[in-house]
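R.M. (postdoc): so does anyone remember the format we settled on? I'll just put the structure tokens first.
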């Protein structure tokens, strides 16, 4: 059964789109605070940085295919978990349940370091819907929130080992 699920969920990274994706996020990827996301674990053995990169890239691909604002989807996806603390261990960093409060913290941090458009802000702020209660305003936000759920599910259950290896290869290429 697990093999069947893996085969259905396996999305390959298309390195032909690498430059176009890079053009959307290069200023974020090179930022010291974004790089610091590598220090925090997100799901299983996946860092917050790797998870966010995964969400960003798949959101970019889907929005491009759907004729949506793929530039904003890539940037919002990369910053959606820009909360900058270890939510597994450091409960004193935030007040409340992490799942409910981290979108607001991520948005506050992203606004501090980057100029964001309304779509990017909406993706960051509402990626945990329905927990965030307020509905996303843009189609790109719905894409990113669904991709986030997909990535979290597959990372937590370690369903996409081949995709994770591709992502790590891509991550090492763009982090140089």
């Amino acid at each position: 059964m697990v093999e069947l699920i893996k085969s259905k969920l396996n999305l390959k990274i298309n390195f032909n789109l690498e430059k176009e994706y890079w053009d959307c996020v290069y200023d974020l990827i090179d930022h010291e605070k974004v790089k610091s996301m590598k220090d925090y674990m997100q799901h299983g053995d996946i860092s917050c940085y790797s998870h966010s990169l995964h969400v960003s890239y798949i959101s970019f691909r889907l929005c491009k295919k759907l004729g949506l604002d793929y530039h904003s989807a890539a940037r919002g996806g990369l910053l959606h978990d820009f909360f900058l603390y270890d939510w597994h261990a450091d409960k004193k960093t935030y007040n409340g349940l992490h799942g409910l409060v981290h979108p607001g913290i991520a948005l506050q941090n992203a606004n501090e370091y980057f100029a964001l458009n309304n779509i990017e802000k909406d993706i960051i702020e509402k990626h945990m819907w329905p927990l965030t209660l307020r509905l996303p305003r843009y189609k790109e936000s719905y894409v990113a929130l669904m991709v986030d759920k997909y990535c979290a599910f597959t990372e937590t259950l370690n369903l996409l080992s081949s995709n994770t290896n591709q992502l790590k290869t891509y991550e090492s290429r763009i982090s140089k």
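R.M.: ...and that's the designed sequence above, right after the tokens. Also worth knowing: The longest strand covers residues 41-43. The radius of gyration is 15 Å.
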